[in-house]
Amino acid sequence: MRSRKQIRNLNLWLAALLAVVLCAPAWGQFSEPPPAAIPASQRPPGLKNVAIEQHLNEQLPLDVTFRDETGKTVKLGDFFGKEPVVLSFVYYKCPLLCGEVMAGMASALRVLSFQMGKDYQVVTVSFNPNETPEIATAAKAQYVQRYGKPGAAEGWHFLTGQQASIDKLTKAAGFDYEYDPKSGQYAHATGIMIVTPQGRIAQYYYGVEYPPKDLRLGLIQASQGKIGNFVDQVLLYCYHYDPDTGKYGAIISRVLQLAGAATILVLGGFVIIMFRLGSKHQGA
Description:
By secondary structure, this protein is an alpha+beta fold. Helix content is about 40%, strand content about 20%.
């Protein structure tokens, strides 16, 4: 009869071996990189200020003030300090892409086993200074329902603010957009960011669909291992975040190292089992 300690150790070993197996299929599977940032001077009219420029490790201005969906004045830093943060810039009355960004976030985050509001926070900021907390309240109700898991009401924050606050935050994050007075709409790129509990930008994810695996690893890495489990740590050893693609890809040398170690463990375990079986046979 195996002891609980033996069973626990066996489970950990099997989990590590499984992580090695999971790493292997990702060899060479870097996704195509997002469109390169085009210099402002080369962008077409109306898009000269439209881009997401990576400001990795940039410290966000945590003292900047906004209003949350209840109308309460808050500082950005109120949502930092303990958990990593998923940050997004939208405007709630956007007729096109912003809704796709929000829907993509809700769908990807719903897959994660982490609990929003406990393991991580989500902060969505409107870059339209004319939007109000009432508009933010309606947007929150829509996407909290779409997310459909406990914790969203406390963990997903919808902010509005004055132009000075918006400018200070978007500039630090590298999020550039442009207002078109003819259409009354904003031209903007799409993407989200993962930010450390201290308020430093860790990663960018582009587009409107976000792989849950990448978001999970990104949140774990941004939290400095405070969330996640042993298997996640093994996967992070195998994978690294590539700023050029905005995704995680396998580090082949590390995968090979773990695969070699797993092979040695398997062979060693087989030798021990055969030795014990031989000893029992001789004793009989």
